[in-house]
Amino acid sequence: MEPEQMLEGQTQVAENPHSEYGLTDNVEGFTISYTAGLQRIVENEKMNAEKSSKQKVDLQSLPTRAYLDQTVVPILLQGLAVLAKERPPNPIEFLASYLLKNKAQFEDRN
């Protein structure tokens, strides 16, 4: 059936129904941009992995006080502040529990 012979009440569908949203039928262009996006993601992940491995090496080479200041002291101080405020009957268990519950907040900073 030709487009001119459409039934009354039916609207003719444009060749690219997504053109109003700025999408095209250019599959090659999509593939190229998708591949470029993936390459950028892979490069970013490689750089992040290199940074984290360098940071691990840096932690090993730090003096004791600097190592503790960067890794343990921030969460320990916050835990001790909460401990002093709440004054539980079993402070060591409370502090241990606090450190385990909140370690994820501080691991990102290392």
TrEMBL record:
Transcription regulation listed as a keyword: yes
Keyword Protein biosynthesis: no
Disordered: region residues: 1-23
First-listed, main subcellular location of the protein, grouped into a coarse class: nucleus
InterPro entries the UniProt entry points to: Dpy-30_motif, DPY30_SDC1_DD, Sdc1/DPY30
Subcellular localization(s) per the UniProt record: Nucleus
Biological process terms in GO annotation: chromatin organization
Alphabetic keyword roster: Chromatin regulator, Nucleus, Transcription, Transcription regulation
GO cellular component, one term: Set1C/COMPASS complex
Recorded family membership: Belongs to the dpy-30 family.
Protein name as catalogued: Protein dpy-30 homolog
Species for this entry: Urocitellus parryii
